[in-house]
Amino acid sequence: MSEALLDIAQAATKRALELGATGAECTISEGEEFSAGVRMREVENLKQAGSRGAGIRVLVGNLTGSSRTSDLTPQGIESMVRGALELARITTPDPHAGLPDPADLGRFSGDLKLYDDSVSRMETEWKIAQALKAEEVALAADARITNSEGASFDSYLGSRVFANSLGFAGEYRTSSCGLSVVPVAKQNGSMERDYWQSSARQVSRLESPEEVGRRAAERALRRLNPRKVPTQKVPVIFEPRTARNLLGDLFDAVNGGAIYRHASFLTGKLGEKIASEALTIIDDGTMPGLFGSSPFDDEGVASRRTVVIERGVLKSYLLNTYTALKLGLKTTGNASRGLAGSAGVGPGNFYIEAGTRSEADLIAGVRQGLYVTELIGASANTVTGDYSSGAAGLWIENGELAYPVSEITIAGNLKQMLMNLEQVGANLEFRSSIASPTLLIGEMTLSGQ
Amino acid sequence: MGLSPSFFAAKFGITERNLESYLGEALSAGGEYADLYFEYLSTSSIGIDEGIVKSASESVTLGVGIRVIAGERTGYAYSDDLSPEKIRKAARVAALIARGPASVVKTGFTEASKHNLYPMVTSPHEVGLAERVDLVKRADAAARAYDRRVFQVIANYADSIREVLIASSDGRLSFDRQPMARMGVAALAREADGVPQQGYSGGGGRVTLDFFLNEKTPEHFAKEAARQAIVQLSAVDAPAGESVVVLGPGWPGILLHEAVGHGLEADFNRKGVSAFSGRIGQQVASPLCTVIDDGTIAHYGGGSRRGSLNVDDEGVPTQKNVLIENGILRGYLQDTLSARLLKSTSTGSGRRESYQHIPMPRMTNTYMLAGQSDPDEIIRSVPKGIYCATFGGGQVDITSGNFVFQATESYLIEDGKLTKPVKGATLIGNGPEALKYVSMVGHDLQLDEGIGICGKEGQSVPVGVGIPTVKIDKMTVGGTAA
Predict the structure, then answer these.
(1) Collapsing DSSP states into helix, strand and coil, what is residue A108?
(2) Which domains does chain A carry?
(3) What distance lies between CA A126 and its chain's CA centroid?
(4) Subunit contact A376:B273, Cβ cutoff 8 A
(5) Closest CA in chain B for residue A338
């Protein structure tokens, strides 16, 4: 099937040139999704379906147009190509618009293990059983777990095809599966929920339903009967889940699209020390089996490893062909897009290199502070670095987690937060394309009572 | 109008006989209810960046979603191919949820009643592309002309037409043609060598192109975005801690969406996981507060508000639902499934992102009724506090009830007067508690300009919000100034 898709993509770019385009790139994706949801020990929903779509971007000199369709018949593709060409004619010339330098086109040669047949072989009954088990373990964990928002098992099988008029044509398949549960804990009028989720590209890499259920229950329980602490400046520890969220905000600040527009507080800072020595950030699209990996990016440039920040010094922005050209730099192979449109910039596996100390060690070093387990409505202003977010977590007293806190906010500025990054934990795990160990930031403003 | 002249009959040859047979397939293993949601969505978008119209794109997506309900269980499948074999195959997959003898499908359909909120002869989507390119060019020029300190402008314009056909096993048949248009402008400004600041403004709805030519022009949104960026150039750090908070009218109504709206969606309450579960009839807000969710607001730009719909995504006509009346919790937002299980009726609140998604209870346009106070008098009554004019987004944890929203344009209130602008800050409160501290409600109800996108369980749908000037005696402001 996917060979046919590759033919369709190549034919579409060829057709675009016949109709007057000077360049074209076509993306096709096809996928099959499955999800089973259970709640309170009963199956609640089952969903299963497949879909596909194609998108094209055409260049007519320095003009760009794009379109997408879910109709992959010859008529559908013809109409997509013509639509994009028509749209190109209403845009204005952009001297930087173009396709990648042919020398940059290519694919990472190693086996990235993005597809595993185990995901396609699972029986529906087995998947349902995993979700039921994870929820059962959570419900049985403690008498205070009285309710559940449910558990689910999801899987996805996809293929992605890309071709351009410079002769690049490539495809790859991906698989993924995930198990999650959301228990609800209740005590003395306090009601709290939390979740745990495990995702992987192969079934054998998933955490067991017992592990998923146990961790979700533990997280919901420790939030019960929270207090609201007074407004103050304190050290803040971000556990991996919330640290990942913070790292996502940093990604926006090294995104070449924000840099060339002067819309990032890191504009013009290449080579400067912008963070504490504890911080090294890598973007690597070539790590086998991970969610941020791919053989080539969304404009056919080979994926690679880029050191973004090294011991506090900003070494590289993350770029696609367009943003690189705007900045007089080389693409880092981070082009990202859906099916149509000009490529944006997206992460490979964007992560903070692990430090040497355990999370427990980091907590033990804090006399009084906040251990953040949830960020709600986090808002980072990429332009100025101003940061403010709702938060919930655990209060640290004399180096120990003492009691839950909620209905508070934490605020600061990313510029200072980066400089005040005192410790990076050793606990780096790749649960999504953005990954961070536990982080300790020396001081933030906590708003509460 | 009956099926025969409808969009799907004309374009794909779908007949009532087809629909009955697909529904029969869906109920072939039992189940009490099945429905089909056919969707054909065409969209277009144009953007200007650095004064260059860098992108123009369009898309067509179509498909059918098939749902089977058996007790509390839902089976769902979809197909992006509308050939009879593919639809039947999807129906058989959805049918797997039920285990029993086939259920009987009612023969014949009755067309459901519906509103006529956006009776447009032509939506912007059907107007020439050149007119739409002109909109973003005008926005770019106006933002730059507003102030010399504006140095970057991005303006986008997007519109769409969604054709839907919904048929259910209890014989309900609905059609709708749903236009949508939205414009957004972002501006960056800086002093000679200073730190840049940004501003954003946008709006739209289920409107005609005339809305952007006569009512809310590109210049309107551009000046507003530029003005906000300029205001931020002199902003001081936001305060940290509890404060009196005055919300300006319009988009700050997102407070209602987060603080009470989500918590009143029937799915959460049926499951007992909302902080509002079991509280109908109880006082959850000050007696000054009456909160409505209304999917029928029309008379806007030749069409209707962004959250308005003739029928919801289950084919049920939308309605005006009272959520909180004088502080007392009155009702939940119901979709078909929750209504069946709670022995209630749908409130026309079943919505979904697309044919690939299972519908669930959602908001439409959520707002608070106007009160008696003069807005200036409200500000004069505050010795020390913060006035929030514009917001970014918000979020809620429906179980604990904690919600946040991001104030992007705010001012200090000192001795009853607005003084310095303050930097963006997150505000946090608790749903069932926060509105109890509302002590004054202005007579100046405004609905937002039409930019809201609500996300729930991975599904995005357009919504509206609105609020008059409101004084809240106590709320936590997440700034950095002690």
Answers:
(1) coil
(2) 2-32+48-104 (3.30.2290.10), 118-161+169-221 (3.30.2290.10), 226-449 (no CATH)
(3) 28
(4) no
(5) B59
User: Could you tell me which chain A residue has the CA closest to the CA of B129?
Assistant: A90
Residue of A nearest to B57 (CA): A66
Contact A231 B241 (CB under 8 A): yes
Q: Quick check: A411 and B240 CB within 8 A?
A: yes
Q: Note whether A376 contacts B404, CB cutoff 8 Å.
A: yes
Question: Do the chains contact at A192 and B238, CB–CB below 8 Å?
Answer: no
Decide: B297 and B305 in contact? Cβ < 8 Å: yes
Q: Which of B185, B202, B123, B224 is nearest to B449 (CA)?
A: B202
pLDDT in tens, B145-203: 999 999 999 999 999 999 999 999 999 999 999 999 999 999 999 998 889 999 999 99
Residue ranges with strand state E in A61-168 = 63-69, 145-164
Closest-CA residue to B422 (of B437, B430, B432, B412): B412
Residue among A445, A446, A449 with most chain B CBs within 10 A, to mutate: A445
pTM: 0.95
Contacts of A68 in chain B (CB under 8 A): 57-61
Query: What whole-number distance in Å separates Cα of residue A113 and Cα of residue A120?
Result: 15
Task: Report CB contact under 8 Å: B238, A410.
Answer: no
Nearest-Cα residue of chain A relative to residue B481:
A445
Share of chain B above pLDDT 70, in %: 99
The per-residue pLDDT for B128 is 79
Tell me which chain A residues have a C-beta less than 8 angstroms from the C-beta of B395.
376-377, 390
- CATH class of residue range B7-232: alpha beta
ipTM for the predicted complex: 0.93
- Picking from A39, A83, A447, the nearest residue to B478 by CB comes out as A447
Query: Residues with Cβ < 8 Å from B186, sequence gap 6 or more?
Result: B153, B154, B155, B198, B199, B200, B225
Query: Which residues of B fall within a CB distance of 8 Å from A61?
Result: none
Q: Where in chain B is the domain with CATH 3.30.2290.10?
A: 7-232
